[in-house]
Amino acid sequence: MEELQVSLGKTRTELEGMECAHLFGQIPRDEDGRLTSIGSISHEVGACHPCAFWFKGVCGNAALCRSCHYVHAGQRGRRLRRSKQARKRMKDRLQEAREKDASQPENSDCIVRL
């Protein structure tokens, strides 16, 4: 339980209050003795699906991830793509910035003298 507290940044009371608290004792450990994830519990029976984010090293859910944190046969890196909404927000922000820059006059005739 202490390792979960540290890796998730939660208190013991917070962890015990989670709906998945009964699964914490079943989370398997990897070859180095580190906790994997809740999604890794069913790995031995083959009833899991791999976490693409863990494979890339960017899974933010840590032990609470519902996907498996073990390497699977034939698993290879996937191109992680932002959601359509996130891509649209980014595009809109870039467009706003371009419009703001275009609306500001250039001061090419401004000379600084020392």
Summarize the structure.
By secondary structure, the protein is mainly α. The protein has helices at residues 2-8, 12-16, 52-56, 84-103.
What portion of residues belong to β-strands? under 5%
The total strand number stands at: 0
Mean pLDDT: 75
Query: Number of helix segments?
Result: 4
How many domains? 1
Q: Can you describe this structure?
A:
The protein has four helices and no strands. With 114 residues, it is mostly helical. It has one domain (1-99). The radius of gyration is 23 Å and the shape is elongated. The model has no long low-confidence stretch (mean pLDDT 75).
Q: How does the SSE layout of this entry go?
A:
Blueprint: H1 2-8, H2 12-16, H3 52-56, H4 84-103
Core attributes:
0% strand, 114 residues, mainly alpha
